[in-house]
Amino acid sequence: MTSEQIYWKERASTLYIEARAYIDGAYVDAISGQTFDCINPATGRSIATVASCDAADVDRAVKSGRRAFESGEWSRVNPLERKRVLQRFSSLLLEHREELALLESLNIGKPITNAFNGDIISSATTLQWYAEAIDKVYGEVAQSGHEMTTMVIREPLGVVAAVVPWNYPLSMACWKLGPALAAGNSVILKPAEQSPLTAIRIAALATQAGIPKGVLNVLPGYGETAGKALGLHMDVDAVAFTGSTAVGKLFMQYAGQSNIKRVGLECGGKSPHIVLADCDDLDAAARSVAAGIFANAGQVCNAGSRLIVDTRIAEAFLERVVEHAANLPPGDPLDPATRLGAIVSQKQLDRVSSYIQSGKIEGARLLIGGERTLTETGGYFLSPTVFAGVTQGMRIARDEIFGPVLSAITVSGLEEAIAVANNTSYGLAAGIWTQNVKSALHASRMLRAGVVWVNCFDRGSMAAPFGGFKQSGFGRDKSLHAFDKYTDWKSIWMAH
Ligand code: NAD
After folding, report:
1. Of 82, 310, 483, 487, which residue has the fewest beta carbons closer than 10 angstroms?
2. Going along 389-428, which residue ranges are E strands?
3. From 301, 398, 425, 478, mutation site for ligand 1 pocket: most ligand atoms within 8 A of C-beta
């Protein structure tokens, strides 16, 4: 063990883990007293006993959020004050960077290096970005004649439920919290049952930063109980959801069955990563294809899980990708050298393994990986997997696997590549490698995806919106466009 690894392990062994819900400015148990175990996927062992919230807790949190909203102490406070407080919240995330990175790593098996250098910083950046935006978003004055002045202004919605997944627990939460809080809403954050720890921890940091009690409540719990109760609650004004398409559809039903609450959906993907024969840097493309599917052990909504490569270069290109996969052995997430961590749960490991099995049965060629490794740890580790000879009818070409599994499909030329890329019910992201500017522009317009990367992959910043076409959802996270999910437009007509 390196000294750094020992440091993180010692730090982990003395870490205090808060696992209760946070309602109205205080940590509380679930009203039912029910709990569930929070499992470290790198060891298979429980690290905390978490409050299991249900409809009664949801009701309590909604009442708290509503009271805070109506009081105006956040919703109507001077924007400069909201900005100051959100900036302090962002700074507190950075001050607690080590603790939060450790919680994230222990909770979902993410390499500590990625959590420490990636997730925590990007989460703080998100809060900071929306803090800065607060007093830079303007309303409009409509052209309504000389006898009338018509102002068109944004108003916060009220109580917003943010329901998030486990793959980037803190980052996904902050993509919602940033714009929702900046706009003046109260937020009830429901983390995924697999990954509640950082959400629970930052609730107290929010209060410390000066966010009034009730403005941010955090409810750990199962989807079928806490999540569903939020979706059906008559006094929740909006749900900002990130997760699977199947559950996204449920939230639309919940909205219809209750109060037509606004719903924003960031759902799954099966993103194509196209490499054309004229790509002039196959090394860079291969690095990018490997990173595009193996980062975060493939548990990424916009993972480039379908490699669509021209037949003429396929063999040589796949050799390079396999080389990268071979250099990514899964390892202890608390070892700073580890780049591929654990799969989040036994259930997810089984799901990914069943897809690997189906790829073999359906006749795809396994080039590398496909095995569970490090079983002696008790954790859920899977070696990076590459399938060649994949055809469009196979399950590994169609379904979102959400694991480190790349499915390579060969095509002849640009038009077939675009057709194959678009042959999916998803439309979150797409990438294309080509030197030809016409091909790049043509593909960028033809690909049915919310994000297109040309000669790069998985790039982003808070300045550009992120979200999907088709069954990858609707509404956008990041950028000023995210305010559309957390505000309503009001027209005020003044006769004079
Ligand atoms: P999931 O849909 O199972 O769960 C997401 C959230 O919904 C969790 O908080 C969960 O508790 C809740 N939930 C589950 N069942 C529910 C129900 N019946 N009613 C109400 N709430 C319920 O997704 P997951 O497995 O946590 O995450 C993986 C999925 O998230 C993948 O499909 C991935 O593509 C997607 N994702 C999308 C984005 C994006 O920005 N588009 C980002 C990250 C992850």
Report:
1. 483
2. 405-411, 426-427
3. 301
